[in-house]
Design brief:
Elements: E1 2-4, E2 15-16, H1 24-31, E3 35-36, H2 38-44, H3 50-68, E4 73-74, H4 86-101, H5 104-113, E5 116-118, E6 123-129, E7 139-144, E8 160-163, H6 168-176, H7 184-193, H8 199-208, E9 213-214, E10 217-221, E11 224-228, H9 234-238, E12 244-248, E13 251-254
Parallel strand pairs: 3-5, 6-9
Antiparallel strand pairs: 1-2, 1-8, 4-5, 6-7, 10-11, 11-12, 12-13
Helix pairs in contact: 1-3, 2-3, 4-5, 6-7
């Protein structure tokens, strides 16, 4: 997980999964034959036009590279890129800085290095939409993937100021103790992931689930501002303690 910069316009200081918006250049990459797993991408996002579905996967991979330094791409031999070599790591770190400044450089990097984006390694498993009362609204796809061997994730020191590996249950415990801040959709997603015993189990679960578009609702109860999670079967799996959140001080907390 990465910690968003305190000055970020949305959820500043919160711990989140790496991610961001689809850029116009992601459509260019999607349309120019630089992507493995096009059929997989289209199948995962059937509500979108094919090129848009692929562009969403490109954006997920690009933002993962920008914010965490993880590159989901294959070389000419079909191997996922490794960065165990210091020279290779330094070269891709330089690319990463360029992509931060100009998203189109991600497309240029793939071409220069003879790589193909591995969209087939991304498993779409959730979709969250911010409530209509929010001034900044997002419609966000969540993907799961396995970290390629020899790659070393790290936050970018620009949009994010910290990063760490943690189990889903550890993240929830830290948030419950006010040691980190979790946005409610991230909290609920972590709770779902915590039910799985391994990375392999998560990928199997993610690939087999029916993705439902979730849009929380805002409400008021006296002086309290609430965020109510949409009711789905997940609520019955682990109780209702995290199906609504109350704004308390500077963060959302589960309503007990």
């Amino acid at each position: 997980m990465v910690r968003r910069h305190e000055r970020a316009a949305f959820m500043g200081g919160a711990y989140v999964f790496p991610g961001g918006a689809v850029d116009a250049t992601d459509h260019q990459t999607a349309a120019q034959g630089l992507v493995d797993g096009v059929e997989h991408a289209v199948r995962q996002l059937p509500a979108l036009q094919p090129v848009e579905a692929v562009a969403h996967h490109v954006a997920a991979a690009r933002e993962l590279f920008e914010e965490a330094g993880v590159l989901l791409a294959r070389d000419a031999q079909g191997r996922l890129v490794g960065m165990g070599d210091d020279e290779v790591h330094a070269r891709f770190t330089a690319y990463r800085q360029q992509v931060h400044d100009i998203p189109a450089r991600f497309h240029d990097m793939l071409q220069a290095e003879g790589l193909r984006l591995a969209a087939d390694t991304l498993v779409h498993f959730a979709q969250w939409v911010t409530p209509p009362v929010d001034t900044r609204r997002f419609d966000t796809c969540f993907f799961a993937t396995r970290l390629p061997n020899t790659q070393r994730p790290a936050h970018d020191e620009r949009e994010t100021t910290d990063s760490c590996w943690m189990t889903p249950s550890s993240a929830i415990r830290l948030a419950a103790n006010d040691e980190i801040v979790l946005p409610p959709p991230t909290w609920v997603t972590l709770r779902e992931l915590s039910e799985q015993p391994s990375v392999e189990a998560i990928l199997v679960w993610a690939g087999g689930r029916d993705v439902v578009r979730r849009e929380p609702a805002q409400a008021r109860e006296g002086d309290s501002r609430l965020l109510v999670m949409p009711h789905h079967d997940f609520a019955a799996e682990w109780g209702r303690s995290e199906t609504s959140f109350v704004w308390s001080g500077d963060r959302w907390r589960p309503r007990l």
